[in-house]
Amino acid sequence: MDIDRYLDRIGLRSRPGPNADDIAVLQAAHRLSIGFENLDIPLGRGIRIDAESVFDKLVARGRGGYCFEQNRLYADVLSRLGIPNRTLLARVRLAVPEGITPPRTHACLLAQIDGRSWLADAGFGGSNVPPLPLVDGAQAATTDGAQHRLRLIGEAGSMGGQWMLERAGPPSATDGRAEGHLGWQAQYTFDFSDVALEDLEQANHWTATRPDTRFTALHIASIPLTDGFASMVDRELTVHRAGRTEQRIIADAADYAQTLRDLFRIALTEKEVAGLTLFTPADNR
């Protein structure tokens, strides 16, 4: 972990202290600078989640990644800053019908900050999650106009989850899976069960390879903005900024590569984008 190189990647000039205010700044800078994406899956490259591979991809090569990569990097950063943390596995509840139990395919972090347990998550692609203390009813706001809340909903080890993260705010300031209202909506549920590296490898493998899931069927990128949120699913770009939402269809590989670079902070060449099979030769003329 080259902490100075990481801080340069996310645009922070000084090293954060091990306190809640500084970690909130750190996490926000990470989210604003390292886009969420799954593009190595359609490129046929697979997803590696060891520390060296994640640092090389997200920091050295200027790429983004999804939760298993983002929160592996973030966990290493927090450890380097002297903040104890461990990984948890969560069930994503976005767009999941009642009565369905989704698998544990989201990695988030339990961190010890200022003598308390906190949810720390730099890798949720659905919305912009701020650090939250593990207190029933704890809330925090983000710059996209949303509120975020933790609720204690069950017993330890229960199938439905012990804790639920919820969000209330503009549906268009998400990755498109939110219901069409401003009220509270479930994001994911989790508990404090121990998670081994092998558990993460297994969950990552399922997420990256199971046919007909969101990550194997679609090309996804998202990133919080200083005043909103942007997402791109296949060729459909949605940008919510300052309360206004704009949508457009990406024209060709050059447009896609430039949008990744300029908006999502993801470095992918036009040649690599052509390998995504999103565009026909006619599109790129």
List the helices and strands and how they pair.
Elements: H1 3-10, H2 20-33, E1 36-37, H3 51-60, H4 67-80, E2 85-92, E3 104-113, E4 116-120, E5 132-133, E6 139-141, E7 147-152, E8 163-168, E9 185-190, H5 197-209, H6 214-217, E10 220-225, E11 228-233, E12 236-241, E13 244-249, H7 253-262, H8 270-274
Antiparallel strand pairs: 1-10, 2-3, 2-9, 3-4, 4-5, 6-7, 7-8, 8-9, 10-11, 11-12, 12-13
Characterise the protein shown here.
This protein is α+β, with helices and mostly antiparallel strands. It has a single domain, classed as Arylamine N-acetyltransferase fold, CATH 3.30.2140. 27% of the residues lie in helices and 25% in strands. It has helices at 3-10, 20-33, 51-60, 67-80, 197-209, 214-217, 253-262, 270-274; strands at 36-37, 85-92, 104-113, 116-120, 132-133, 139-141, 147-152, 163-168, 185-190, 220-225, 228-233, 236-241, 244-249. An eight-stranded antiparallel β-sheet has the order 5-4-3-2-9-8-7-6. Strands 1-10-11-12-13 form a five-stranded antiparallel β-sheet. The radius of gyration is 18 Å and the shape is globular. It starts with a helix and ends in an 11-residue tail after the last helix. 42% of the residues are buried.
Short description:
The protein is an alpha+beta fold and 285 residues long. It has helices spanning 3-10, 20-33, 51-60, 67-80, 197-209, 214-217, 253-262, 270-274; strands spanning 36-37, 85-92, 104-113, 116-120, 132-133, 139-141, 147-152, 163-168, 185-190, 220-225, 228-233, 236-241, 244-249.
